[in-house]
Structure formats: structure tokens, C-alpha cells
Amino acid sequence: MTRVKGKIMDCRQILAKSFLLGILLLGQVMCYPSGAPDIVCSSMIPNHGVSANNSAAPYTITTSKSTYKSNEEITVTIQANSGLYFMGFFIQPRKNGSISQPDTVGTLTGDSLTKNPCVTSSQAALTHINKTVKYSVNMTWRAPAEALDTVVFVATIVQSKFVYWVNVKSPEVTPLFYDPACGKTISCFHGNTFLITWAVNGSYVDFEMKASIPDPDNYWMSLGFSSDKYMGDDSVVDCSLQSGSVRSYSSYNQGRSNAPLDNNVYGIIGRGGSLQNGIFTCSFSRAIKVEAKRKKRAAASATTFFDLNENWYLFFAQGKGPATAKSQHTIPPMISDTKTNLLTISDLTAPEESSTGVDLALVHGSLMIVAWIFLASIGTVTARFYKSVCPESKLCSEKVWFQIHRACMVLVLFLVAAGFIVIFVEVRSYSETGGWTDLQRAHPILGIIIMALTIINPFMALFRPHPDAPSRKFFNVAHFAVGIVAFVLAIINIFIGADLEKLPKNVVNLLWAYVAWFIFIVLVLEQDFIQSRKEKGGNSYELNDLPEKETSGGSTSIIHKLKPGILAIHAVIVLGLTVAMLVLVNLSEES
């Protein structure tokens, strides 16, 4: 009997213990069945009624890479030590791994069994949503567009209700274009896609430039020293990548122009470089100061090779071509916010917004396209071929053709003048780059000639002689010639400008389509013009209203009868080509 009672007591104790254990386990599971609540997004401490475990966490957080670039994706893993598990987790990518400052970087995403509990606070985070046992968890971190911060993944990992660890950290993940020694033992100037480091070495400063480049060959990058935030009067060191070889050169910016110094290694010692995984690296040593001997532009002297004892703004630019014949930079230059003394340790960041803005060169090009491709095309055609169309019709007391011609050409004058002013605001001086081809160097020269002709022609019209004056014939020829020369030079210069700005190839294709169409329309209308002169005679260059007997009637050809429709078709086609070019130019600016 006693034995039976003892067995019953043992069973009751076992059942009681099992029940209590089940309740305890249920309570533990119910504490975090759906992950961390949003109230812990800053503190990362769970409300479990007990303090965190102070021992070393039996868990590790690893990343697939130790560096990152803009918008890059990296795999992050929480892993339990062998034989252990965890029930819940809460992780954030924190700036510098700070606990007191809950600033997060980028975004975190996981599988369908995870969620972000910190949506309302706009913080990047991830936590579990179920109560299963976990041995490891993988997630994806996406870097922000501006890759400027060191990131540490900080986690709270829960083994049970009463056992959890906080402040579990991953190793640092640093921007690819950043060095932890920046501002400590070396000086740096860095942005999303480049890093420049330097340190004083006797009478020289040792530099290393590193940048992500889109083309594996025939590429350059430059470091400029300037007294202001504008290109012009800048001392420059260029690095060129050609056929796997890296070389360094000295050059100088005169206005918006750049040319190598006559001694293109003046004051610098090239240390070579490399191209690995799309990262172009170049090292060189630059003399702090070199005594001047010559003063001419692009000559090696103190006027073109600046003294680094003084404070300078730093410029970083990159583009296609060798350093001795550089094409225009492919992205706007990155500019330091402040002047710096390169002989003292500093850490400079180039904000994204400091290097961008309205590209006035493209505004200039757009104005010229509208002026010459659209307006001048209509104005020249009406003046040449439409005097005899609807000769009795008038608009504001003037012949219709004359009003169309005058309106178009006055608008051309205003747009060309605006474009001329815009480009001078952009370059702040006459622009001539030493690396340009002879044809490209002709662009600003032609621009000045075209501007002069565009101004001269309407002033000539203001002083035209009387129709019966002997000099009227010479005026007509001169007025016509000046207009046609300006028009032809303008179209040629637009082709050159498209090459300078490295616009999409389709822009050039559209220009050729325009030239083909314009030649075609001129040939068609010229046939009617020649026939009309044979039938009636007359002065093709005349701009005033002639007596009715000289202009009425017109040609009897089919083309003459279709002239109004031909002009309408011409206007629609050149308008379409103009709009298409403007769209492509705008898309090239965004890209």
C-alpha cells in the first residue's frame, strides 16, 4: 500500500513539473511570437522583465563583403554557434554601430518569415514573425545611393524569454571609396564613386586616386587645385589609363580649357596604378612648391603649378581619352565644400548636390537647335521661295511671307543671343581645350562668327536702300549671302557641338536626317523658283513689297500650286526633328 501511494505521488510530481515546464515554455514563446515591437526600434531592448545576458554571445553576424558601393546588395547572416539555436532576433544596419544614436543606413529585406517593425520611424530593421527554432538567418542589405557611412549590423538575439543578448555586432562594412584612416593619419577627399588620399612626404605630397570607371581602357581622372569653386585658372594633375598602362601628367585649366604643361611631368613623380574589378587606381607624388621660371600660359611655372602651402578647393573629374588629349568629363566635377591646406590632416566629403545642377552647355545647345533647325529653316525657305504665293494676302500691312520670315529670324536672333550669353555664363571666358581636335577647337570661333552675322543681318535690313536705288541689288545679294552663310555655319557648328557634348549617336543621326530633308525640300522648291523666274523675271532677294504686277500670278507648275502644303509639311517635319533632338539631349543630361 505504501509503495502504491509513493508511485502515485511520484506521478503527480512528474505531471506537476511537466505542467509547470509547459506553462513556462508557452510563456517564453508567447513573449515573441511575431517579433520585436516598434517601441524598441531605438533601444533594441526587449521587454522581457529581465536584463540581458552579460556573457559573450554564442552568435555571430557576418557579411558577404567588407566594403560597399552605392546601391550595392550585401548578404547578412546571423549564425548560432554549433549545437545552439535562437528563437527571435532584431537587427539594424546602424551608422558606425552606434547604440545611443539610432541612425540606420540603407534597407534590410528578408524572406517571408521576417518583417520590418520600424516602418513608422523610417528605420531599417528586420525581425522574425514566427516561433520556430532558428540556427541561422540570411537577409539582404541594400546600400543607399550615397555611400558615405561606415555600417555595423547591430542585433538583439533571443534564446528564450529570460536569456537574450543585446548589442551583438558585425564587423564594420565601409564604403569602398573610404579609408578608416581618413582624418586620423591621412587626409582624404571622397564621394560615392571616388577616393583621394594624401600624406606629406618631405618636399612632396604623396597622392592616391581611386575611382569606379565604366570603360576599362582609354580613360582619365584628374585632381585640380583651385582658388574658387569654378573651373578656370586651376592647377591639375591627370592620370591616364591606356592599354593597361597608367601615367601621370601636369596640366592647367585656362577658363574652361585644359592643356598639358609644356613639360607635362613638371613637379610630379608618377607612381603607377592599376585597374581591378572596374576600379581605376593611380598614385603620384606632387611637389609642394616649385620656383617659377616662365610665365606664359600652359608653361611649367608657378602660375600654372600652384604652391600647396596655400589653401585650395579640390576638384575631381573623370572622362574618356588619354590625359594629353582629354575629352570633356563624363560627369560634373566633384568639388570640396571648403578650401583646405593639404599639408594638414583633413577629411573632405564631396556631397552629391555640390557636383550637379543645370548643364548650361546643354541649354545652349537646345537654344541653338530651336533657333537654327526649326525657326531658321522656315524663315530661309519662305524668303527664298514664297514671295509669289498668295501675293495679295497681307498680315499687319505686310506680305504674309515677309511676316513669317521676319518673325522667324527675329526669334533666331533672340535665341542665338540667349545661347551665346548662357555659354559664356557657363565657361566664364573664351573656351579652347588643348585636347580638342582642330575641328572641335573651331566650335567657339564659329560661334562668335555666327553670333556676329546674326546681329549684322537684321541691322542691314534696317538700312536697305529704296527699291529703285542702284545699290539695292548689291544690298539684296549681301543680305541673302550673310543669312545663308550664318545658317550653314550654324548647322555645321551644331554637328561639332554634338560631338563636344558626347550626345547620343541618335542626335547626330537626326541632324543628318534634317540635312537630307532640307536639301530635298530646297531642290524641289528651286525647280519651281527657276521656272517662275523664266516666266516672269524678278529679284529673288527682294524683301519689300513690290508692285503687284511684279509678283502676282506666280508659276503655273504643279509644285507652285502645292507650295502652301509643302511649307506646312516642311514645318511639321522640322518641328518633329527639333522635338526629337531636344528629347534626346534632355535624356543625355539625366543619364
From TrEMBL:
Superkingdom per UniProt: Eukaryota
Positions of the Reelin domain: 22-189
Domain Cytochrome b561: 327-535
Transmembrane segments: 361-386, 407-425, 445-463, 475-496, 508-525, 565-585
Domain DOMON: 192-319
Pfam families: Cytochrom_B561 (PF03188), DOMON (PF03351), Reeler (PF02014)
InterPro entries to which the protein is assigned, alphabetical: Cyt_b561/ferric_Rdtase_TM (IPR006593), DOMON_domain (IPR005018), Ferric-chelate_Red/DefProt (IPR051237), Reeler_dom (IPR002861), Reeler_sf (IPR042307)
Gene3D superfamilies xrefs: 1.20.120.1770, Reeler domain
Cofactor field: heme b
Keywords: Electron transport, Glycoprotein, Iron, Membrane, Signal, Transmembrane, Transmembrane helix, Transport
Topology with respect to the bilayer: Multi-pass membrane protein
Signal sequence extent: 1-31
Intracellular or extracellular location(s): Membrane
Protein name: Ferric-chelate reductase 1
Organism: Sinanodonta woodiana
Lineage, uppermost ranks: Eukaryota, Metazoa, Spiralia, Lophotrochozoa, Mollusca
